[in-house]
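1st attempt posting a full record on here, be nice pls
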Amino acid sequence: MSAFTADAARAVGGPGWLVERRLAAFERWAGTPPPTSTEEIWRYSRVDALDLDRYRPEIADGESGIPAALDSLMAQLGERSGAVILRNGRVVFSDVDHALSAKGVVVGDLATADTSRDALGRCSSDGADWFVDLHDAFLLGGALIEVPPGVVVDRPIFVFHVAEGDGIASFPHTLVVAGEDSEVTVLEHHSSADVNHFSDAVVELSVGDAARVEYVSLQDHGPSVWQIALQRAHLGRDATLRSAAVALGGDYARTRTESLLAGEGATSEMVAVYFANESQMLDFRTLQDHAAPRTGSDLLFKGAVEDEARSVYSGLIRLRPEAQRAHASQTNRNLVLSPGAGAESIPNLEIEANDVRCSHASAVGPIDEDQLYYLQSRGVPPDVAERMIVFGFFEDVV
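the predicted structure (as tokens):
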């Protein structure tokens, strides 16, 4: 890890407050041993195979234009309220509708925005670990989306993260701050070519009282990319978060998705769909953390693996003593499409309140032979029948 030094963290530059924050995070990171698969939260993972000596942090300014691969995509997006494009964690483009800007909506770079100084890390510090500290130590900037109280953003805001360069470590960051009684939809896309790249990403969703946020993430990295990501949300009173994820790419891609329901009446919905093939491994860890009465959370994660791919899901519903009259559900289901593939599913409950409704369920198995027989006996070719069953399996998530 010789490339990850205090001097390198300092060399990233930026405003003084961000440099100080970066160096403090480096001290925490350097003083903490790296995680291993013997720890419960890293069980079944590939963390022992990560060699940071293969990477160096992005420090110098990269290209400033819109990546060519996004040109056609941007043209197909249709109407939007704003967009941010980042190369290796550095903002290279941002725009926002003029009418929304006049109402105080901010879509830009958190490294240059005055408000981000207090908001940055407010959510992610609760879920801090070795990789979050590493992320904070080499943070270049990130996408900032801020919606003032009472403002409704009626069209989506897009965030594109592009990972480039062999042997590079990047640290993408997205910060969404939704004020009281506001509304916004954010669609985020992570992509790369087939490069030897390490992405250490953090997403923070701060959802104010009675605010409504929809967040959708698509991960489509190249097959040699390693990703470690944290998505953590804080929800205020009567706030609503609908969060969705699609995971398709990467060699090893891990995402930790957490919601803290801190205000009475808050509601969180998490859904995900994932597909892994060849030798991929997709790793999901979730937390539904109820810290207030009358809160609700629902989770539905569905995945499929084939060839020699593997998936891991480990989720926890935590109901703290103050979470009376809360309700929570957690469901994870997996299709194993090839004899060499495998999936692990570990749902967990931690209940400290006595007036709650809770449920969890998980399943791992192949396609039902009776379903295949039913379709094939009606003239559907075997490969088409299998595809139809897989699409039907994902339908409720989609």
